[in-house]
Design goal:
The structure is a homodimer. With about 425 residues, chain A is α/β, with parallel strands linked by helices. Chain A has helices spanning about 15-30, 45-55, 65-70, 70-85, 120-125, 150-165, 195-205, 215-220, 275-285, 315-330, 355-365, 390-400, and strands spanning about 5-10, 35-40, 90-95, 100-105, 115, 130-135, 135-140, 145, 170-175, 195, 225-230, 240, 255-260, 260-270, 295, 300-310, 330-335, 340-345, 370-375, 380-385, 410, 420. The first copy, chain A, contains twelve helices and 22 strands. In chain A, helix 1 packs across helix 4, helix 6 runs parallel beside helix 8 (about 215-220) and helix 11 packs across helix 12.
Chain lengths: ~425, ~425
């Protein structure tokens, strides 16, 4: 008997018939002898509907009250799911974030989980119930209701899996798992059987939407094994695990892309110590999330500093840069919203020096210009024109032959699922 | 500075524009220097929508989960109201039933309030906030979310008013107050300025829908002064008070009616001691709510026992009576769903022996047959044919000249509102 945490997103519980399908799946897991904790999001776009209601009564809703409002969404889906499970020969009890002991800080709208006091959950499991928990929400140290921000339900699921020592945290979604590239851009993209936490972090950070960064970070920190899979099929999805749970490493896991950012540039900045630091401090003080930063080599005593920011922060970033321009003495500020970032992620590239050269060649052969480059030990990102994003992803995917199955599987010792092992070599 | 509890029903917060209107009213009360606690119901028919959702996922939803589901409704309306108030120069904090310390027993769907631990509410008031509380809900001694059943939000408001020692509990609704008769039946029905708890109890019990019995009972027991008024106007409504808060008594307050009951009769029961007791014990054991009971005089050693039950309990009542028939030896069982109950309520009738005769004459002059009669010290109820209900109410209202203003007002000592005093005499 294993303890399993399952998380179902909004599309999986979008209407009554889908809730019944989820109930079937949960009941099957329970009848198979498992202890089951289910974390649910709000139904379909009900959260957006609540936000629209809020905007009709207030131009700038109080954050505490917005959290109170939004948490009604999971309350509805979880109660409905518990009712449906009760008709399938299992008993179920639903719990709000507060009842489930999800203790957070007091930052409404983007609270962080400080502690999980899962006593009531453990009691309910011991009494034989399937436990349904509202995702995305908690209770603050001030006893107010809080929400965890985007992707919060995934984080709730991982936090509960960690607190309860679950065998696996299954993230059910509307895709089959994590792919080597977005299948809408690359039709022969391949589903990955397994990726490491680090790879998944880089992919999430560079545009893969299947899991939020925060949830993957929490899983890595607590060692929770994730299984990302479709709520519409029984096929296994993608496991996210410690790297050393796999016997060998893939060189490349996949290609991700992100069109949500803009590039801003401070032009002809005096090239002297402290200027870059001062610039980024002022930007950081504004709470603007900076991603890639590139400073060109000095030319006639000045240099250009470029960085990418979310498009939603662009107006604020430009205001700050205008202020910085005066202070440090740059000649101008420019902005470019027409860019995309294409990233190649793979834990094996650490020890394969040819990877970045191969990636740049693939782009060059496709006639695509690279505007900015940044790298980590397991990722290479290039900024290109927005119109080039699809050909860029396809060219890289093709060059690294990512659609070819380069893995073999073995049976996982606990028998809960096949956990595949990544193979000896992938062409570079 | 007074502490005021205001309760707004579902129609008062049915959409964003109505919520803004309620926010205006609440903010005005706050800006006038009062401490304000607001109890809200769910928006419009959102509770019915949630019930419909539940019926789509389960034929017989688990009561605990149904309560979890339904309590989402007030969560939405209260958060929206708090946001809107914050835009009107006041600060507001919303609290669920659980956060507000509404402690109930464990009977899901019809929980009773056992205690009100209003510490957080008092703290928030002391900090200068308007406090918004979800009506209709609480938390059980088992820490599960419960609902209070029909009219539960009124009870929440009264319970909070009692716990906080509020000056008044204002019940805002979609009518102007309590009338001498249903204005849809009697166009010249008059709004009452004041009624006693006892009169209001009798009127609620006999079909007046403006306040639920339970809420009035709670108010009487705790001495909470109610003011029933419209959320669509500033006109004063109807006060519900201790009888001795008024200087003199009206003989008649109003005429109410109820078409939700059916009459059942056990025919030709042996007229011997214990038969009626045995009959009513079996009916009570089935949990059937019996209202009027009439036993005719004995005739050839047998009698008929008739009583009224809610139509929703009719099938069960007939099953019980069939069993009783065999046991006590009656000749048959009959049922009649085509009846109505018309009641005359007034604290002054205790000392006015002519009232019942006048009422019966009014019905007789209108050609209406009386099928059953029951009385209390301040109420007379007659069962008539269902088709006769409107003419019966009109005839009685006319005979007692209830549309004529027979009251005078004086200024209430606390200045919060004019509390009228009921007059010397009303014609019988």
């Amino acid at each position: 008997m294993a303890l399993i945490v399952q998380k179902y997103g909004g599309t999986s519980v979008a209407d009554a018939s889908r809730i019944l399908r989820v109930a079937d799946r949960v009941a099957a897991a329970r009848h198979a002898g498992n202890e089951v904790v289910v974390v649910v999001s709000a139904m379909g776009d009900s959260t957006d509907e609540l936000l629209a209601l809020a905007s009709r009564v207030s131009p700038d809703p109080a954050p505490r009250e917005l959290d109170m409002l939004l948490t009604a969404g999971e309350r509805i889906s979880m109660a409905l799911l518990a009712m449906a499970i009760a008709d399938r020969g299992a008993t179920a009890k639903s719990f709000t974030g507060s009842q489930a002991g999800i203790i957070t800080d007091t930052l409404h709208g983007r609270a962080k989980i400080l502690d999980v006091r899962a006593g009531r959950i453990s009691d309910a499991l011991r009494e034989g119930h399937v436990v349904i928990v509202a995702g995305f929400q908690g209770v603050s140290t001030d006893l107010d209701v809080t929400t965890l921000g985007r992707g919060g339900s995934d984080t709730t699921a991982v936090a509960l899996a960690a607190a309860l020592g679950a065998e696996v945290c299954e993230i059910y979604t509307d895709v089959d798992g994590v792919f080597t590239a977005d299948p809408r851009l690359v039709p022969d993209a391949r589903k990955l059987h397994v990726v490491s936490y680090e790879e998944m972090l880089e992919m999430a950070a560079t545009g893969a939407r299947v899991l939020m960064l925060r949830c993957v970070e929490y899983a890595r920190r607590t060692g929770v094994r994730l299984h990302v899979r479709s709520s519409f099929s029984d096929a296994p999805g993608t496991w996210v695990l410690e790297e050393d749970e796999r016997m060998e490493k893939a060189i490349i896991s996949g290609v991700s892309y992100d069109t949500s950012e803009a590039k801003v540039t401070l032009v002809e900045v005096p090239d002297r110590p402290g200027v870059a630091a001062r610039t980024m401090r002022l930007v950081a003080d504004e709470g603007i999330n900076v991603d890639m930063i590139v400073q060109n080599v000095s030319h006639h005593g000045t240099t250009d500093i470029s960085f990418t920011v979310p498009k939603s922060d662009l107006a604020r970033a430009l205001r700050v840069l205008e202020q910085v321009r005066g202070e440090v003495g740059a000649s101008g500020v420019s902005a470019d919203g027409d860019i995309a970032k294409v990233s190649l992620v793979g834990a094996g590239m650490k020890s394969s020096p040819g990877v970045s050269a191969t990636m740049f060649e693939a782009l060059a052969d496709a006639g695509i210009n690279i505007e900015m480059i940044s790298t980590s030990t397991i990722r290479i990102s290039c900024v290109v024109r927005a119109r080039d994003v699809a050909p860029a992803v396809r060219a890289i995917h093709e060059r690294f032959k990512l659609s070819q199955e380069a893995e073999y599987r073995h049976e996982h010792p606990d028998g809960t699922a096949e956990i595949p092992v990544i193979p000896r070599e992938v062409p570079t």
